[in-house]
Amino acid sequence: MTGAARLIAAARSQPVDATPVWFMRQAGGSLPRYLALREHHSVEAIARTPELAAEVSILPVDAYGVDGAVMFADIMLPLVPMGVGLELTPGGPIVAEPIRSAADVDRLRRLEPDADLPFMLEAIRLVRREVKERAAVIGIVGGPFTLACYLIEGGPSRDQLRAKAFMYREPAAWDRLMDVLSASLAAHAEAQIVAGAQLIQVFDSWAGSLGPRDYVERVAGHSARILVAAAAVPTIHFVARSAGILEHVADAGGDVIGIDAGQSLDDAWGRVGLARAIQGNMDPARLLAGWPAIEEGARAVLDAVAGRPGHIFNLGHAAPRETDPAMLRDLVSLVHDSTLRAVP
Amino acid sequence: MNERFLRACRREPVDATPVWFMRQAGRSLPEYRAIRQRASLMEIVADPGLCAQVTLQPVRRLGVDAAILFADITTPLPGIGADLEIVDGVGPVIDRPVRTAANVAALRAFDADAAVGPLLEAIALVRREADVPLIGFAGAPFTLASYLVEGRGSRDALGIRRLLRDDPAVAADLLDRLVDMTVAYIRAQVMAGAQAIQLFDSWVGVLSPFDYEREVLGHMLRLFAEIADLDVPIIHFGTGAAGLLPLLATAGGTVMGIDWRIGLEAAWRQVPDRAVQGNLDPSVLLGPWESVQDQAAWVLREAAGRPGHIFNLGHGVLPGTNPEHLRRLVDLVHEETSRSPAA
Predict the structure, then answer these.
(1) What is the CATH number of domain B28-266?
(2) Residue A193: which of A146, A237, A234, A223 has the closest Cα?
(3) Does the complex come out with an ipTM higher than 0.90?
(4) Which end of chain A is more exposed for a tag (fewer CB within 10 A), N or C?
């Protein structure tokens, strides 16, 4: 099977010849060509230049042999045309004027992806043309909760307290905010599919800071709207630190549920239901601990999978930027080689 | 003496669900902030009278069913030779981080009277004055080790995790010494009068179940074995540990403390033979009273009146929390759960 066929089949819980693998934040990191590009271009400049974004997205396909080419893009960029002043810094995105009131919410404009983000869509076309069947093109959209948190907090935050306080204090404005975000992100996912994305990952990094009731009542429906809009291709729904709300994340949708390293994969899969595919979940900290630790972590994940169809190997969260590229290449080989099987 | 809390720890019927709050003593109370004008956190802990006063403040103002000893998780560490200061806005900062075999070997055995004498005196003072039980307090070895290796609090605890892998013998020696220290610290608190102990593993949620089982569980089992003869309930609390809950229960604990990132009912199903403490999202208290009411009622519905629920937040009281919300919340929990004790 080709890499693209392998990843798409696994996402649909169909049999594959070897377990597909890709890594969150594989595009970028410590690849020499990326570091060289970064000497002359900011992250934002790369993301906004189709040729550069495409090149960086393809690098890990060539360097590691991954089965998915995830787009090099920042989940915050769609907010700029919605009227948000934004600066991408090494410490994370900084919002010029964070949302503080209901009136601030009403100033946001709904995204029109074709007019607003042509560079992202063009980058997808370029990647698709270039990687052909070697890897499937994965488009990404941020989860609506995570983007709302950035907008209210003004940048990365530890516990999303300001955002949650806003949610409790201004429930109607919160719903309007989630509404404009999910409508925009749904449109963005659809436009990426039209441009050639073969899977969509919804990346809700921070929704794990909510308890189950708040997640269900204030977030899940908005995430579901995006996942439904993207249903023309397999969708991956990833929430970090989701061990306490996993069933609800799964209920919100996704052909594949992405899990972090804080829960055991077999237990998580049982809760999600074995009919659904699962993605994960090697602890990314192992990537900095040398090959024996990586091999042990990878084998523990594969043991938990026990050969069931519908597993996509990934990390439990983004790869650390300083990861040695050779380790990622060897990890891809290990996963492929140790899961080889005949396709019925 | 109000026995609700201790009865609930033993899963016995109670007249109303007991309630206390992690970090109930401290920054949210104006009378605490008044004391902090003239004394640092370390000075308060070193002064039995002040420490007892701060410990009792929330009992008087809020009407909670238990007092918890006012101390920091790192308070006993200077007693093994790891000197530290508490920096505003940062938290505890260790003078000389512990990273090598020589650093670990230089740590000394813990002598509770010498290390935390004033704190033990404060326990006796609180016992004399309080009409609710006093909960003692200790950090779990993994969390303490992460402070020692990193030199300060760290979100991903990479320092101790790297040490566990690169130099497992040194890491194990460090954890062993911290188990010894924690056992001695807990025993001293109970001898001084603490009627329960909360064991806090603040950073353990960074570990995968695989790593917890291999690197930490053995140390925790020894810790619990060495305090098993103490006739007090132990509350075992880990933050962000929804995926580790059955393993934490295997380690031990009369009561499992849970944070808000998991439903109380779902959590209890995983540890059916324990009492459960929790788990209102502390950020709810930054919002209006109506949402506090609504969310607290939901926690109580999840507990469904089963014996063995202790109402608490899913983590410590946040800065900026309105103490009036806390006081009304105590009343609400009591009123909503009032029942005949002979049920």
Answers:
(1) 3.20.20.210
(2) A234
(3) yes
(4) C
